[in-house]
TrEMBL record:
InterPro entries associated with the record: AmpC-like, Beta-lactam-related, Beta-lactam/transpept-like
Signal peptide: none
Name of the protein in its database record: CubicO group peptidase, beta-lactamase class C family
Regions annotated as coiled coil: none
Gene3D superfamilies: DD-peptidase/beta-lactamase superfamily
Amino acid sequence: MTLSQDLQALIDAECAKAFTHGLILRVASGDGAVDFKGGSGAAVSDTRFPIASISKMFTAALIMQLTDDGRIRLDQSVQSILADTDMSGLHVVKGVDHSPLLTVRQLLHQTSGLADYYESDLAADLKKGNDRSYDLNDVLQMTQALPPQAAPESGRSYYSDTNYQLLGAVIEYATGLTYDQALQSRICEPLGLNDTQVLQGTDFGLPVYHRDALLNVPQILTSMGPDGGIISTLDEMLIFLRAFMQGQLFKQENTAQMRQWNRLFFPLQYGYGLMRIKLPRWMTLFRATPEMIGHSGASGSFAFHAPEPDIYLIGTFNQTDASRRPIKLMLRVLDLVAKDRGSR
């Protein structure tokens, strides 16, 4: 079988599993790209789909652009930027209110220790299809109602969508634009991305499921904005991912600090709006596996670059009950690519 046939067989096998209504995958290298699809919800390369938390990569790129421009500083307190937003009491650990001193860098690197507003009743509402809109004030209230994850700079990253909601507000203050306007003018227009935007209206492309339940939650997705509300296509995600990894969106010297990896939760590490996957040798019978850098999302979306074989992997399961499946799928794809290259 050819590599394309092996990859399509892999997709078909995934689509035969429970709660798989549609899976799309793009595998790209320096010499081209190939799309694979399967299931009733499959799509072509220009069909839009919710990218969920991959949106954080766009937010991170915008923040780095603003630091390049001198409009903000990474070690500047968020409260000093958002002077009209009351952050007091947002992050109290053992009686100490850390809220006024939280920095842009801590939000970006997920080292603030802030509670994740998504883990309030919002996550349950989304999975039940209970749609509702919310704004930053609502996010802060939801966060305050939850226990903090840790004090700032506790030695690791703690995933929190609250961090990126606040970064979205920083972007709006620093640019004088809405988050989507900043996204369009600073990333989408320069890269020629015409179908990438924060969700507007009710058409978010491919349907998203929680198990077998079709989710119709456009208000929630729109409200997620900087932490998970962007929709895009395979074509445009590849353009963005390449530009991000090749340092075309911000100064090249930023790349190294954005890849200061902290432990997140196994097998993920976190940088500045970036995830890193690198399995330890003891898990793979002491066989080395490729490093993958990018981001995944709660909808089963993924966008990663494996630098060593120089392979880009983009796609989605469109399934909120598929948190681990993208990682397993990408590792299988890279293994097939390696075997194909080894046989030439």
